[in-house]
Design goal:
heterodimer, A: about 325 residues, mainly alpha, 2 strands, B: about 170 residues, alpha+beta, three-stranded antiparallel beta sheet, 2 helices
Chain lengths: ~325, ~170
């Protein structure tokens, strides 16, 4: 009597082969990805928007736009009063969210790596045209600074009152290897201390944030895992008639003045580029490779710098109460 | 190659003129003409040699000015010029390479009583690359943001927004 099941296991029929190889295939797929529909490469995991947002939250200031403006207005008030006590009129116009963050809806070069939604591209391009029509521009949206009317001979004394003597500076050895010298004396120093107490500590921690931010800005372009998708993206863009080295370069090409191109033509170019860019990202999976590179580096950086970033965030949060007290007085 | 050709031609002319001078002109005239030719030679040499005096130092950035330098440590590009911007925003930095700072902003000094926000794109677009505190000097702008500034806004405050170095 023959046992069918045994015969099936040793039989070379396709069902048996598939059953035997399925677990192995699954491992291969999870480790290496699967072919894309066009058969040119592997499928990368989708962009993890939540993970990227978590990185932003850990690195960025925890303050809202309104709170950031509150800090600026408070420091300005302290500086103004200090200068007036010394006999100099220096009046800053009130900072507003609209004026300070007039450029906020513009896509940054960093964000451009992740821009891959073809529907968004078709509906609003990169958002430039819409934003340009909506904003009034930084110059028009605020007043001017009333500065002391003094002679050239009086300038050194006025500047010393404003920011202290030449030796009242802090020189920071920045994490990227450079140095930054900042005046921390005079009325300016008083303004900073009124919010942050230990200005040197505050500026040192700001440098940490700047370093982490800049590292993350660079990592995508420098990552090996991005090389191949980037090359595919370039080819795709070139085939569509647009030759660019990287997504940020596409944005850069749109930063032109109205003297060079009419707004209508610029808008048309923006939408054409945005749709092609998004399409080529989908084909090349460049945005996914970029996200993977970004998150990998971010994990390493945050492991080392998270404590300092959190300390800076707390200093900024603490400064809000002080700022409010200054503005209320 | 171009300057070698020029040198060669100049030398040929000089030899030929010198031969004429020795045979047909009095000593005083020969000296005068020789001086003229020496002057020409010196001028050609100066034209062919880059002049270090074409840079500008931090000291030239006066009170009330924001200065960007196209090379590290206080030297401006030689054609970008004395690129201070005493009191105004600049929506379009001088472009490019040796002729400006758009692709070569490597150092800054801010002698304004205000902060200066430098943007990636022209007309204050593309996000803030960096914000220069009043009274600050950076002889070596971080690699990630240098060579990217295309416009700047002399912002009417004594401080930068806390989020100016943020990721988007």
């Amino acid at each position: 009597m023959t046992r069918p099941t045994q015969r099936r296991l040793v039989s070379p029929d396709w069902i048996g082969v598939a059953r035997t190889l399925l677990p192995v295939a699954a491992l291969v797929v999870s480790a290496c990805g699967v072919p894309t529909p066009d058969g040119l490469g592997e499928v990368l995991p989708p962009v993890d928007d939540v993970a990227i947002q978590n990185v932003y939250d850990a690195v960025n200031t925890p303050l809202s736009e309104e709170e950031q403006v509150t800090l600026m207005n408070a420091q300005d008030k302290v500086v103004e009063e200090c200068m007036q006590q010394a006999g100099y009129q220096l009046d800053y116009p009130e900072n507003t969210v609209d004026a300070v963050f007039a450029d906020r809806a513009y896509m940054s070069d960093f964000e451009s790596w992740f821009f891959a939604d073809e529907n968004v591209a078709e509906a609003s391009g990169y958002g430039f045209t819409i934003e340009t029509q909506a904003r009034s521009g930084p110059q028009e949206s605020r007043g001017v600074v009333v500065e002391p009317e003094i002679s050239a001979q009086e300038e050194p004394a006025m500047l010393e009152t404003f920011r202290g003597a030449d030796n009242e500076t802090i020189t920071l050895d920045q994490l990227d290897g450079g140095t930054l010298t900042v005046a921390v004396g005079g009325c300016l120093g008083l303004g900073m201390r009124s919010l942050y107490d230990d200005v040197e500590q505050y500026l040192t921690l700001k440098d940490v944030r700047g370093y982490v931010t800049n590292e993350l800005r660079l990592v995508v372009m420098d990552a090996d895992e991005v090389d191949s998708p980037l090359e595919e993206w370039r080819t795709c863009m070139k085939d569509a008639g647009h030759e660019f080295n990287s997504p940020p370069a596409v944005l850069e090409s749109l930063y032109v003045s109205e003297a060079d191109i009419s707004p209508a033509d610029l808008s048309e170019r923006e939408f054409e580029l945005a749709m092609t860019d998004a399409h080529c990202k989908q084909l090349s999976q460049l945005h996914q490779a970029a996200a993977s590179a970004f998150l990998g580096r971010a994990q390493d950086l945050l492991l080392i710098k998270n404590a300092e970033l959190a300390q800076l965030a707390q200093i900024e949060i603490d400064a809000i109460a002080k700022a409010q007290s200054i503005l209320d007085s | 190659m171009a300057h070698l050709t020029l040198d060669s031609e100049t030398k040929t002319k000089t030899r030929s003129e010198t031969a004429m001078l020795t045979s047909r002109h009095p000593r005083s005239v020969r000296l005068a003409i020789t001086a003229v030719f020496l002057g020409i030679l010196v001028s050609v040499g100066l034209l062919l040699t880059p002049s270090p005096a074409s840079g500008h130092s931090y000291d030239e950035c006066n009170a009330g000015e924001f200065c960007v330098f196209a090379h590290n440590h206080g030297y401006l590009s030689h054609v970008g010029g004395d690129w201070h911007d005493p009191s105004n925003d600049d929506p379009n930095w001088p472009c490019c390479g040796h002729h400006g700072v758009q692709n070569d902003d490597q150092a800054f000094i801010n002698n304004e009583t205000k902060v200066v926000r430098v943007f990636d794109g022209g007309t204050y677009t593309g996000g803030t690359k960096y914000c220069a505190l009043s009274g600050s000097t950076d002889p070596d702008i971080p690699t990630a943001v240098r060579n990217d500034g295309n416009s700047h806004d002399v912002y009417t405050s004594s401080s930068c927004p806390a989020g100016d170095v943020d990721l988007p």
